[in-house]
Amino acid sequence: MTLDLTVDELLTSTRSVRKRLDFDRPVPREVLMECLDLALQAPTGSNAQGWQFLFVEDPAKKKALADIYRATGTPYLDMPAPVRGDMRDAQMDSVLSSAKYLNENLEKTPVFLIPCLEGRPDGAPAGMQASYWGSLIPAVWSFMLALRSRGLGSGCVQQSGVRVGPDQRYRRVVAG
Ligand SMILES: Cc1cc2nc3c(=O)[nH]c(=O)nc-3n(C[C@H](O)[C@H](O)[C@H](O)COP(=O)(O)O)c2cc1C
Question: Alpha carbon of 13 to those of 25, 42, 74, 99: distances in Å?
């Protein structure tokens, strides 16, 4: 079932949901697959579609992934917030408070989606990096929009990737 939203309403009302995530609400597999089907319409460089999408629902794996996230997320969120001299400064307290809440509760989220892409862009020139990540992130956003239009909240988290770089620990956790 989808909400009665115009496309413009959907695009302007989809936000990162953290404090208001309902940890006890199961997300049916059919809904995830429906949103994934929509996300797969996103563009990719050279029509490569080299993506794979991994859903994690196992509590022990989610906890292990959340611990990896926190190892870099906690010190990052404890750093002084950047001052930018515009309206983003006024939003920063609530963004940080919300991000800290998610950092502490990440494993309670019913489902993690880990978007993956063939290859590794390490050391590639910036233009190649843009093309690489630009062939994955539109699909992630489409997935989030599709969830929103079905009344489900979501948020992007990227701490571990940013701080740790190529993370073998993710592979170990996910592979079990
Ligand atoms: C690439 C990317 C990485 C992000 N990483 C995190 C993160 O690690 N933790 C988090 O709580 N939010 C993360 N966010 C969410 C942003 O903080 C959020 O989009 C921003 O504050 C604007 O809020 P809004 O999405 O509600 O408009 C990330 C967003 C993007 C696009």
Answer: 21, 20, 28, 19
